[in-house]
Amino acid sequence: MSKSKSQWDFGELFPPKQTRKVLSVSELTGQIRALLEKQIGQIWVGGEVTNLRAQNSGHIYFTLKDASSQLSCVLFSREKVPHRELLADGQKVLLQGDVTVYEARGQYQLIVRAVELQGVGALQIAFEKLKLKLAAEGLFAAERKRPLPKYPQRIGMVTSPTGAAIRDVLHVVQRRNPGLEIILASCRVQGDGAAEEIAEAVKLLNRYNVELEKAARGDDSTIQPFNNSANLDLILVTRGGGSLEDLWAFNEEAVARAIFESGIPVVSAVGHEIDFTIADFVADFRAATPSAAAEIITEGVFACREFVGDAPELLQRAARRGLASAVESFSQLGDRLARLHPRRRLNDSLQRLDDLQTGLLRGLKSAARSRSLVFDNLSGRFFRAKPSLVFKARHETLRQLERRLNALGPEQVLARGYSITTDTASGKVLRDAAKVSAGQSLTTRLANGEIFSRVDR
Amino acid sequence: MSKPAKAGDTARGSVPFEEALKKLEGIVDAMEADDLPLETLLARYEEGARLVKICQEKLAEAEVKIQQLEKTAAGELKLKPFETKEAV
């Protein structure tokens, strides 16, 4: 059989324009890869992280998606990306990376070189960065913080005129120290430009304070001091609660610097208890909330109300005690004086006189022969014993006693008509007629002279 | 006794609250603790009574005074009354 064209031999049906090249899968994949790397190469792409898997190797695989497409991504462990731990499902990010193809899977992907967090995550990063920067400059230094005046009479306030913060502060102040005077420098407390307004308000109050001092010194000033009062004792920078974005203005550098440069101590009360802003760190004092700030600011005056109320009573009691003590001292002195007083000495003498009087009577009863002599003797002694005093009353008493004594003496008795009868021999005084015998010799002493007689019966 | 006047003293013409309060505390302490001679006791009592009056006057204020500070177009400082937007 000869090799002839079969009826099925139609020749080349589709003669190639050029030599057809058949690629292997690898070759094709390699071309695609080269094409992508050349045409697209390194780009920035934004989207939302999803399906994130961190491998033991430290490489992080995830998918970046938006509403209608998705992109495989890999962040290798060797890439120096700060805060890679903040990557999480749902996190919005901007990624810088190289588009390429993972040939083994035939999958195009992004090799991530840099990450920028969007939304809250980004704010947190910015917060940390600024915090470190300002701390390094010494804006948060504890030594720089000034003590708050204990009894502020006049304060400045930086806040929104319509917010919850000013309402809360006014309520607390009204309750605890209504005498407090407040100068408000109003501003917006969130949104674009709010940070600049807050900083301006702090500066404005500082400027006002300088003018107040000038006016008080009598220097030229552009203002009339209101109520003839003193300086601003402190500035309260405050706003009510909100999200991190709402409070963001108080994390801005402009606000931090204005607070740092304030010549007046600053109290910062931003948000709720758990919110800490950069303003809080720079301020001289942080309060957890606007109400807490107002409580602390008014504490001194509020606490002293009780003391001031009690003070009149305390003063009076102390004065009375002091006076009583003085009176007591005087009274003691008086006692000492009384003991030294001549009157006391006189009383002693009178007592001696009484004694002498008793002795005198006894002497009369046991009559010696020369009774008048004894009497004279005693009365002489008596007169010699009389105290030499100046008081007429005592003199008179003495004279009275003298008279009584005389009245008891025999002279007075005899003068009244009585006589003393004695036994002539023995001299014994006779009282009992029965004891007398007939013929006994008797001597009778009269006021004048003596009678000698013999007893009849 | 004289002290250097600080800003506010001369403008006020009277003792600042904090100073009055501190003096009053000192007087009460001295009167309660010491055996003061009688003349000093009475002098201190009178001074104390005077200081109590000063402090009580300040504490008797019943209305918070709040004013708003503004910068005029000319750049001058101005105070104006503050209207609270709701009853305090």
Could you give the topology of this structure?
The complex is a heterodimer of chains A (457) and B (88).
Chain A: H1 25-39, E1 42-54, E2 60-65, E3 70-75, E4 92-102, E5 107-117, H2 120-137, E6 154-159, H3 164-176, E7 181-186, H4 194-217, E8 234-239, H5 253-260, E9 266-270, H6 278-282, E10 285-286, H7 290-340, H8 342-365, H9 371-385, H10 392-408, H11 410-415, E11 420-423, E12 441-445, E13 450-454
Parallel strand pairs in A: 3-5, 6-7, 6-8, 8-9, 9-10
Antiparallel strand pairs in A: 1-2, 1-4, 2-3, 4-5, 11-12, 12-13
Chain B: H1 9-12, H2 17-33, H3 38-59, E1 65-71, E2 77-81
Antiparallel strand pairs in B: 1-2
Helix pairs in contact in B: 2-3
Write up this protein.
The complex is a heterodimer of chains A (457) and B (88). Chain A is 43% helix and 19% strand. Chain A has 457 residues and is of the alpha/beta class. Chain A has four domains: 25-118, OB fold (Dihydrolipoamide Acetyltransferase, E2P) (Beta Barrel), CATH 2.40.50; 138-304, 3-Layer(aba) Sandwich (Rossmann fold); 343-415, no CATH class; 420-454, no CATH class. A five-stranded mixed β-barrel of chain A has the order 1-2-3-5-4. A five-stranded parallel beta sheet of chain A has the order 7-6-8-9-10. In chain A, helix 3 (164-176) runs parallel beside helix 7 (290-340), helix 4 packs parallel to helix 5 and helix 8 packs antiparallel against helix 9 (371-385). Chain A is rod-shaped, with a radius of gyration of 63 Å. Chain B is elongated, with a radius of gyration of 20 Å. Chain B has a domain at 9-62: Helix Hairpins, CATH 1.10.287. Chain B has 88 residues and is an alpha+beta fold. The interface between A and B is large, with 58 and 51 residues.
